[in-house]
Amino acid sequence: MTDAQDHDAPSPEDPAEHVITLWVDADACPRAARDILVRAAERTATPTWFVANHQVPLPRSMHVKAISVPAGADAADQLIVERAHPGDMVITSDLPLALEAIEKGALVMTTRGEALDSNNIRAKVQMRDFMESMRSSGEHTGGPSAYGQREQRDFGNALDRWLAKIRRPTPRT
User: Fold this and answer.
1) Do β-strands 115-116 and 89-91 pair in parallel, antiparallel, or remain unpaired?
2) What is the DSSP letter of 107?
3) Rounded Cα distance, 44 and 59, in Å
4) I want to staple 50 with a disulfide (CB 3.0 to 4.6 A). Which of 59, 66, 143, 173 is the partner?
5) Quick one: which of 100, 14, 7 has its CA closest to 49?
6) What's the predicted TM-score (pTM) here?
7) Per-residue pLDDT averaged across 141-166, rounded?
8) Which helix (H) or strand (E) holds 161?
């Protein structure tokens, strides 16, 4: 397992030469998605930080690291929002975290490969809040479908497209 100390992670005070980083909300990240992220980080040498309030089992790697935050409501989310830079990718299905990351200029993708952005996040947060109020009134609304082969493939493909896009050299003018 690779377990990094908090001070090793990039912070907002880093120089302008920021390297695009993947930030993973690891508390609810399916193991299959975690494996896809680790392979992609190794293949593309992309710095990837798994942030959770528990130990995340990861292979030894120069590119993949974990940060364990103290237990507490949204401690991992707060660290991700604090450390993410504009252009970084946040992997989460937590819509309030996604909204904060988007407002900060980060890109957001769910572990199902769905891109969340300023055009769709507010409607998704409103729907989440509506469904939560339905559940609290006793309505059975069900949950997300199982994380199967199709979801894994969609996530892997979306992640690969994003990583290929950030690796393209920008044309000089």
Assistant:
1) unpaired
2) E
3) 16
4) 66
5) 7
6) 0.80
7) 89
8) helix 149-167
